[in-house]
Amino acid sequence: MTNQSNPQPDDNQAPLEQTVKHLQRTKEEELTKTQAAQFNLEYRNLNNLQPDPAAVAIVPKELVESAQIFAFEKTGTKVMLALTNPNSPATLTALKQLDAMDEYQFQPVLVSDSSIRYVIGLYDTFAPKDGHPITTSINLGKPGTSITKLTDLKNFQTKLAKTSTSDLVELIFAGATGLGASDIHIEPTQTDVRLRYRLDGVLQDIATLPKATHETVLSRIKLLATLKLNIKESSQDGRFSITAEDEHYDIRVSVLPTQYGESVVMRLLPQTGKFVSLDELGLSQRDRQVIDEAIHQPNGLILNTGPTGSGKTTTLYAVLNTINSPTTKIITVEDPIEYQLNGVTQTQVNPEENYDFANALRAIVRQDPDIILVGEIRDQETADIAVNASLTGHLVLSTLHTNDAAGAIPRLVDLDAKPNLFADALRLIIAQRLVRKICSDCKTATSAPDTIFIAKIKSILPDAQIPATVPLVKGCDKCNGTGYRGRIGIFELLKVTPEIQAKILSGASSNEIKQLAVSQGMTTLAQDGIAKVSAGITTLDELLRVIAE
Fold first, then answer.
1. Can you tell me the distance from the alpha carbon of 115 to that of 25, in angstroms, rounded to the nearest whole number?
2. Could you tell me if 432 and 312 are in contact, meaning their C-beta atoms sit under 8 angstroms apart?
3. Which of 70, 197, 325, 523 has the most C-beta neighbours closer than 10 Å?
């Protein structure tokens, strides 16, 4: 159990008001400590403790509220019981009732009025739901409150107002899984709490929660993710799992302090979903041939670049699924492991134990692998080991954060990787983004492109071919009124030829390398995107949104 000093700030208070409030609470705690000595009782500050759900559940909620008592710690049969007035009739009556519970020994401790009000307000957060103890997982089953499209949200606020804390959290997850959200954002404002889902890569407003629910929802999520409830002024990261209609999800939780309270972002990683194949990524025929040639090489380095959420992991997993076989040893090191791959050895970094990408990669090369996937090259040590591994008989796949394929070269130089080594190791650099696809259910008749459309296309690619027709986006129930449903990749595949290697060794700029690659047949992100616009797969506005990021 945690015991750290940390005030419980009120979300809406200015810094001066928070300071005054903290001083008042400090004075109250000091007075309570003095009173505890007078009553010959132990003193505890509940603001600095994380209650044990197993202890909380021992005393029924009705008794907790009527007697203003709270069980917060359990060791064997011994239960620590917080109270504020040991001589009050309600407390004395409650103690007699609890004494009748032969299986427990209750030890009263004195706490302040404000601290017991705080924890009693979170009783539903700590207590088991339907008799089941709090765990690091949620089983949604087939919830009747599940929503499958945004138009169902007209009754969402009513459902939120009528549900308990634990049910509220489950309702939020039911909506997210039903809509296929990749992320859940719970953002406190000055007056309320904003709930948003990221759908097809774009954040959508879902509902507004009452400000009063923020603390209980936050505490429930923290408990699930095994985070410290009393830590409110620094960030925390955790994880738990949920199950929804036989789909298993790994939930990654990030909590960040803000001026109006703690903001929570949760990423949903489906563990039982169908893997996307190379054929489903959206690669052109030329790009598919290039990638096939590279991934069937016995050694070398393949890099995938792009911002967070651009589909890099999906592409690399598609590659691994393509080349995975009983005669091949594949080992991955990831942060985190996003999906379980059959027949692949996967390991996850743990910086707290000094198990980072470099140390993991150093160990992996001693495991006799044929193919190695490194989640990300972040430093010189990892870059050097990855390059050396690719030069000594291993095919190595990894990612970098750069805007385009050629940008990977100066990024490696920035990491102090040696050009004379990585130029020889590199086989292919993939840059990619994800664009939303036009909803096939509400796509309307096409029209001729207007002057604005033509001007926008020319601003991206001056020599672009203008499509004869442009599909119109409408919006329907199937796409939640957005006009888009699902996503597809746009790609830029830079094949590292002898001429490209020579450019790298000469210290050429990324722009010079890109121009040479284009002259050798490389399709740029913009060109691939416009091809998908011309084919009626996505829209120009969507392409502009993505390549401008």
1. 9
2. yes
3. 70
Residue type, 458: K
The overall pTM is greater than 0.85: no
Q: Identify which of 103, 4, 86, 85 has the alpha carbon closest to the alpha carbon of residue 49.
A: 4
Give me the domains of the chain, ranges plus CATH numbers: 26-130 (3.30.300.160), 138-270 (3.30.450.90), 278-435+487-524 (3.40.50.300)
Q: Rg (Cα) of the chain, in Å, rounded?
A: 29
CA 149 to chain centre: 22
Q: Name 503's bridge partners.
A: none
Query: Strand, helix or coil at 125?
Result: helix
pLDDT tens, residue by residue, 136-187: 567 776 544 555 554 455 566 667 667 766 678 888 998 888 888 999 999 9
> pLDDT for 491-546, tens place per residue?
999 999 999 999 999 999 999 999 999 999 999 999 999 999 988 999 988 999 99
Token duo for residue 165 = 């804390």
* Span between the terminal Cα atoms of the chain, in Å: 44
- Could you give phi then psi for residue 223, rounded to 5 degrees? -65, -45
Which residues lie closer than 8 Å to 249 by C-beta, 6 or more apart?
177, 241, 242, 243, 268, 269, 270, 271
Q: Is 328 helix (H, G, I), strand (E, B) or coil?
A: coil
For residue 206, which amino acid is it? I
Q: What is the pLDDT of residues 46-66, one digit of tens each?
A: 887 888 888 998 999 999 999
Taking the CA atoms of 442, 443, 447 and 449 in sequence, report the sign of the dihedral they define.
positive
